[in-house]
Amino acid sequence: MPVAYQIGGLQCANDLAMSNIDTISLAKELLMAYSTGGVIPEPPSARLEDFDMHAAYAVEAEFVRLRIAAGHKTTGLKVGYANKAMWRALKLDTLVWAHMYDDTVHFSDSIALPYYESCRIEPEIVFKLKQPIAGEALDAVEWLAIGFEIIHCPFPEWKFQPADFVAAFGLHLGLVVGEPLRIESAQIPTLLEDLARFKVRVFKDGEFLEEGSGKNSLRSPALCLAELARATPIGAGDLVSSGTLTAGHAMGKGEVWRAEVEGLPVSGLTLRTE
After folding, report:
1. In this structure, which of 25, 50, 57, 138 has its CB flanked by the most CB atoms within 10 Å?
2. CB neighbours of residue 37 within 10 Å
3. What pLDDT, in 10s, does the model give residues 135-170?
4. Class of the 73-273 domain?
5. Where are the domains of the chain?
6. pTM of the complete model
């Protein structure tokens, strides 16, 4: 049965008659790697000549179907390539995205990493929508928070193309969300300015690693959210993890990670890995 998906505002279908790419088998292969922490020797783009973004989103849609069939629910979207300077070199005309799930989003100060050998952690602004975006993006937001996204790459040496990123569930392994800041209409003009210039500092076991800024997420997480809404529908209740604010840092078990925020009225976030 064809699987519907959307890319760049165009409704498409995974019609295998249009391509020799077996998107169902690819989704099952990637799901196995996701479920076990296994390595896929070659990403799809390296072995399939016609593997493009349309095929990647078809694989992602099939991945969603398989996870729903296993009893999970989607909870929103995570963003990738929220850096416009990279788009021309990578032949992108917008950012990319993949789904998050009810078993990958956590409101906790600890997370277990049972078998993954190659994880990275990234600080991001997380939005929760109260309604679809129709005008100013922040008008549709119920709350925002600082979060840590944990990513895992099933491909050797973290080498992949944007289409591989999409097909491999956006490398998404988990999202840990900090204390939400509820947004009132009167706050929005100030938040629009603050989101473009706030700072976040990342610490591992008390040691400072890196400082990032809101401008690293498409010049502002609010602009990133608006760009995502132009690329694909986002619904009421969806969470959006709006792109990393620093480089990704390697992580493992038994560590304490902290994100400190300056210039934005949100609480910082501390995370312990088990």
Report:
1. 57
2. 16
3. 899 999 999 999 999 999 999 999 999 999 999 999
4. alpha beta
5. 73-273
6. 0.91
